[in-house]
Amino acid sequence: MRRTCLNMVYELAKTDERIFFVGSDIGFGTLDEFKADFPGRFFVEGVSEANVIGLAAGLALEGKIVYTNTIATFITRRCFEQVALDLCLHNVNVRLIGNGGGLVYAPLGPTHQAIEDIAIFRALPRMAIVAPADAEEMKRLMPLTVDYPGPIYIRLAKGGDPVVTDPGMSFRIGKAFVMRRGKDALIVTTGMMLKAALDAADKLAQDGLKAAVLHMPTVKPLDTSVLLDLAEKAPIIVTVEEHSIIGGLGSAVAEAVAEANFDSVKRFKRIGIPDVFPNKYGSQAGLLTHFGIDTETIVSVIRQLNKRPSGQLATERN
Amino acid sequence: MKVETKLEGPELTEFLQEKALTIRRDIIKMTGIAGSGHPGGSLSATDIVAAIYWYALRHDPNQPKWKERDRFILSKGHAAPVLYAALAETGYINRDVLWTLRQFGSALQGHPDMRKVAGVEISTGSLGQGLAIACGIALAGRLDKLDYKVYTVIGDGESQEGEIWEAAMLAAHYKLDNLIAITDYNDLQIDGRVSDIKDVCPVDDKWRAFGWHVICIDGHDMDQIVAALDEARQLKGKPVMIEAKTIKGKGVSFMEDMVEWHGVAPNQEQMIAALKELGVDDWTSW
Q: What is the CATH number of the domain that holds B211?
């Protein structure tokens, strides 16, 4: 997905002179073609994220469309104020491409795991947050990032994830996609967790439980019209994300659903990383299973919610 | 059209000193009426800002977004009154607006807001951010083959920010000789003397070591300011730092070199006394 994303930046730069790339410690050999073909629009800025954001803002204020790329934690935590002021306050066309959204960098530990990146950026006015499910969806997203007004955060998953979206699908920043319809439950997901959600819906169907799956690649601005349309009819709503349960998709959905004031009672559960720093390393898949962010957990949560009329679920595993 | 001065020598000096005096009077009245603000650091930067706007800057108040304009960025955004006074005196904004400083609904907030005030290039206020953005604007100018200069005034206290030194490295790396930074070195920050709190001295050696061309001047000597700006504009191959030794509160005896006047506005009595020192006998007529 990262390769697709960065290659798209290069492809788009071929026909649009406004497109610049500013990387920070992106790795040897990344975007060599871009550098060779458009050296005047290609910069690698070393280890200085705050300065990279300021530089990108300055370029964007002069009419450039600036794509920046580094590890997601460094682009969200380290330079938060620069993102807030230089980018969001000034409403400039800078695209932040964050490597390793979620637990991708599992073996590198909590310094590199972007578990609250969405929460951080959701709080910023004007920031759009997009987490495509796969490389195909990334291909549909990238051309739309050129003329989108204001800053965008593009959350990258691990490379080589299975393609689960249909290449014929449309894409729009701010639009949610109904991947499955079903009256018994609603699974809302973003990014690469779409696969687990779809698999869970398939498994639940074997029990006769029909679960709808809503894929929200754009977490902000949230497509509340589609979300609430499905949520109104669903007795059970479960959110699934590779992110802290605080402040991410689950929070966004909970806020929207709570304020919709439906007459019918909803049973609701956020599936995500609990409020802890991961203290086990290993692989991304291993950590996702450890935290119960997987097909099996989605299935069991929905089954339990379907049985229990009310009350809290104890499914979090630290 | 663009603003240009044809004056030279003593006439130029006198002209710029008059502009600086006007700015000082406006700073006092503005903050006095507002009842809050940062007069100290505005007054220390006044002579520099006057020389930039009326001598160095290629600009046109009727076309604030003119592509070939020189850009001025007040990185030490809390000195907004000095910028607002310059923008009013050059004609970007209406003078009457000055007296609405910090009021609800006023375009003139406590820190400059580019969305609301013509001539404000970027919204500053959080220290350390201006120089990095100035680097981006300077780099864009070079790539667009526009020969504009980017001027930015930073504070000495602001130089304690790490982002300043990240930007310092970047500007030298790209040899941004269209970037001219000025340190308003008044040696006072909110908590006291910069040299007592976290000494930034030697400022000149630091910037030199980072690869900048450094010019050290008295930031209230108009001839020295003009000469430094001339040298900076001519220099090729390096960004320029003008280290300007200044006095916080310069021009008002009871404010000079007093940390108390960093972020406190004069009350009416003090405002009247300050304006008297600046040659205004009846403040209502200014």
A: 3.40.50.970
- Residue B103 within a domain: yes
Binning pLDDT at 50, 70 and 90, where does residue A57 land?
A: very high
Helix (H, G, I), strand (E, B) or coil at A69: strand
Tell me the average pLDDT across A15-20.
97
Residue B227 lies in a domain: yes
How many domains, in total, are found in chain B?
1
Distance, C-alpha A31 to centroid of its chain:
23
Confidence at residue A313, expressed as pLDDT on a 0 to 100 scale: 57
Give the integer Cα–Cα distance in Å for B40 and B251. 10
From the list B121, B123, B135, which residue is nearest A54 (CB)? B135
What is the Cα–Cα distance from B24 to B15, expressed in whole angstroms?
14
Q: If you search the block for the tokens 């002179």, which residue do you land on?
A: A17
Residues of A in contact with B161 (CB under 8 A): none
Domain presence at residue B56: yes
Contact (CB, 8 A) for B142 and B135: no
Spatial separation of the C-alpha atoms in residues B126 and B111, rounded to whole Å: 9
If you average pLDDT over residues A30-39, what whole number do you get?
90
Interface predicted TM-score (ipTM): 0.92
Chosen for mutation from B67, B133, B143 (greatest number of chain A CBs closer than 10 Å) is B133
pLDDT of residue B228: 98
Q: Is B237 part of a structural domain of the chain?
A: yes
Range of the domain at B53: 9-285
